[in-house]
């Protein structure tokens, strides 16, 4: 009789625990989620981040609020996200620039992307495009090369900031073409775009999402994309490799990260919902319309990509000779 009572008591105590854990997991999110965007409004990262935030809000009745924290090639926003509490209520739209390139360029970063952040959901990847003002004297990429060889350090190119993949794409092309263009860093794509449109810099090296609207409006002329394949959004624009620089391949990726030690069930929930969005024709079309290519991954696949690129870009940065000004 005593044993039976103890068994009944143990079962009674266990039942609340059994039902509590799933209930807690299902309650996420119970309040608004802040999505840190580590660049100013208007750039490729901002465009994709706001699209994901909007669609997550619409599909799930969540509240996902973009919060622009630009500066220092995106590293300020990433650092802020890395310091946040690991609860799932602070997520960040990172990309190759600030997650795997910047650590090899900046000596005193306050975060280690592999140790301090955890990959959640890959969203998209995009080539980089070299553009110039529509009325520019540069009609082709070869025109740029000839001018840079004739007068080194006089042809200028803008980028969203030091330490970005986009900045390095220009530096890597300097090496591949054996020329010297002068880099002009800006605090985000929008500022660089305004100056290339005004003719204050000769070229801009940009993500396709950042430049696409101005290209379609006829205000910018695309000279080449830096990926191995042509962009779906710019099918008539040749790759740098096609123009004689074989093997040239520089692109960037975008995805969501959370602070390390964020609960696995929260990461799983975010990954599931983002991947559901990426599987819809509407979301695919919206991402392609912005000049990017949608691509979903599991958290584990995305984490592997992060770690692989982190080691790969150490050598690329060192070989390019790029430095932070």
TrEMBL record:
InterPro entries: BUG, Bug_dom1. Residues 1-25 form the signal peptide. Gene3D superfamilies: Bordetella uptake gene, domain 1 (3.40.190.150), Periplasmic binding protein-like II (3.40.190.10). The keyword Signal applies. Keywords: Receptor, Signal. Pfam families: TctC. PANTHER family: BLR1237 PROTEIN, TRICARBOXYLATE-BINDING PROTEIN. Belongs to the UPF0065 (bug) family. This is Tripartite tricarboxylate transporter family receptor.
